[in-house]
Amino acid sequence: MRNILLFVLGIYASTLIAQGGMYDICPIKNSTEIPEAMVYSQDGESVDLKTYVGKRKVVMVFYRGGWCPYCTRHLSALQEVKDDMDKLGFELIAITPDHFDRLDSSVKRSGNGDYKLFSDKDIQAINAFGIGWKVEESLYAKYKDKYNLDLEWWSNAKHHVLPVPAVFIVNNGKIQYQHVDPKYSQRLSPKLLLAFLQSVE
Q1: Which CATH number belongs to the domain containing residue 35 in this structure?
Q2: pLDDT of residue 24
Q3: Can you tell me the distance from the alpha carbon of 49 to that of 183, in angstroms, rounded to the nearest whole number?
Q4: pTM of the full predicted structure?
Q5: How far apart are CA 108 and CA 115, in angstroms?
Q6: Which residue would you say has higher pLDDT here, 10 or 83?
């Protein structure tokens, strides 16, 4: 029994070490102007994120990919307050390192939500917002071999970078609030997001 427990703890510890990069990020600060970054629409058209956002009110959600059930459930949950977001003048957009050819999976798995979806396949936005971390080779292999999850297939790239799940509230081109949590199962609740939005002037 003791050997089994030590084995399980060893696996758990090795996973935490492999994911340690998630805790080394340095997110962009509040009151900072959003950075320039090129992303892609579902049609593959390049979009300058800073120009797209402009001076509008935006809720910007960064998520790991259409393969992540925590992410797609979060996107689905945010629909609970979408009407309230609209009334407050906020647009909901979601950004993922998935290639734009894979974005349909996010739409389907999140319940065909009403939000703008962008591919950050070149990880420009993820890195510019300071939330990117590199998946180590051992963890990449584990994802691929054990869970049949090939990050290179989803992104059509070999950078192996994922974002720490994050929500940025943007107004007049500047970050007003942010929720960034390396514990990827912990997400900003719709009610708390709405409370933040109601305090933005």
Answers
A1: 3.40.30.10
A2: 75
A3: 26
A4: 0.87
A5: 12
A6: 83
Concatenate the DSSP letters of all residues of 96-143 into one string: ESS-GGGHHHHHHHTTS-SSEEEE-TT-HHHHHTT-EEEPPHHHHHHH
Tens-place pLDDT, residues 97-141: 999 999 999 999 888 678 899 999 999 999 999 999 999 999 999
Q: C-alpha angle 116/118/124, rounded to 5°?
A: 140
How many domains, in total, are found in the chain? 1
Report the distance separating Cα 10 and Cα 136, nearest Å. Answer: 17
First to last CA, the chain: 58
Residues 174/34, Cβ–Cβ less than 8 Å: yes
Q: Residue 66 and residue 72: Cα distance in Å, rounded?
A: 6
CB 100 within 8 A of CB 42: yes
* Domain boundaries, position 118: 2-198
Is the per-residue pLDDT at 90 higher than 50? yes
DSSP H or E stretch at residue 82? helix 82-87
